Amino acid sequence: MAKLIASAVTNVIGRTLHPGHLWRAIQLQRNRKRDSRSHDDVQLELYSKMLPGDFLHYGYFDDIDRQPEDMSLAEIAAAQNRYADRLLDQVVCPDSPVLDVGCGMGGLCRMMLQRGLTPVALTPNRLQVTHVTRQFPDIQVIKSKFEKLPVSEHTARYGTVITAESLQYLKLDQALPVLEQILKPGGRWIACDYFFRNPTHEKSCHVWETFEQKLADTGWHITHREDITPHILPTLRYIHMWATRFGIPLMQFAFVKFRKKQPALHYLCQNVLDGMQNLADTNLPTIDPTAFAQRHQYMLLVMER
Asked: Is the pLDDT of residue 240 over 50?
């Protein structure tokens, strides 16, 4: 491990001193905002390779007390299928197309096909578009942000619109009018996502109270609501266990070995290594199940007008 890190550091230094590489780095830094998360999310690609079933969500456990030491990846996959079943059980217009907003890797669309539904997948992410198109060639895939969907081409087309862990990314002032226009009369908007319990300046998801008020102000009615927070926590416990017992200890072990084997390079890279440790420390609370439950509520919702 120490030799690999030393080799990597040497390579970085060499590229930094090379004018061509340095100029390329400057261009990439300037263009970083153009390569936004929604268009090329390598994190989602990683999840899709790690988790079976083409799902990217937390899943739904019937046994809310399931402990991570006793869990397997097969149980995670079953929980993700159960989550999708809970959503699709709310579809009441089976003869009309169902729009899957933020379709991820296509797992929900796959289960719609199995139920005889007609899914339409929407995502701005080119990796997801490629994957879903390859896996499910008969499904229409729309590459677009939901807010930029050409409404004139989709007016009153859908009996159901589903936002499963994609609602948090939508700009409500733009998204709600689109939802209103593309749903058929009597159509349903099914959402499953987490919200901040209390007002905050953070932007990672919507504040529940603000979301409720926005719905009321725009004529939407919540016809089904269910707090499923306890049912998604087993997945977080599983991820948190692997991070705290294996991921971070292995990283720290590698740092110690690097310092012993290559003290000079370790000294030169100290700021980089400290940054990696700080990044891990900063992100660990986001997968802590206790902290998540204190700050968030995960809701399964059906909304109609």
From this structure: yes
pTM of the model as a whole: 0.81
CATH number at residue 183: 3.40.50.150
- Domain membership of residue 167 (yes or no) is yes
CA pair distance 108, 294, nearest whole angstrom: 29
Buried b (16+ CB within 10 A) or exposed e, 235-268: bbbbbbbebeeeeeeeeeebbeebbeebeebbee
Q: How would you classify the pairing of strands 183-196 and 158-164? A: parallel
Residues 70, 169 contacting (CB under 8 angstroms): no
Say if residues 143 and 130 touch (Cβ distance below 8 Å): no
Whether 165 is covered by a domain: the verdict is yes
Pairing of strands 296-304, 183-196: antiparallel
Which helix (H) or strand (E) element contains residue 158? Answer: strand 158-164
What tokens appear for 241 in the block?
């266990």
Res. 213 pLDDT band, cuts 50 70 90: very high
Count up the domains in the chain and report the number.
1
What is the per-residue pLDDT for 196?
97
Count Cβ atoms within 10 A of the Cβ of residue 198 and give its class: 0-12 exposed, 13-18 middle, 19 or more buried. exposed
DSSP collapsed to 3 states, 257-290: HHHHHCHHHHHHCHHHHHHHHHHHHHHHHHHCHH
Which structural domain, as residue segments, surrounds residue 175? Answer: 53-230+294-304
300 lies in some domain: yes
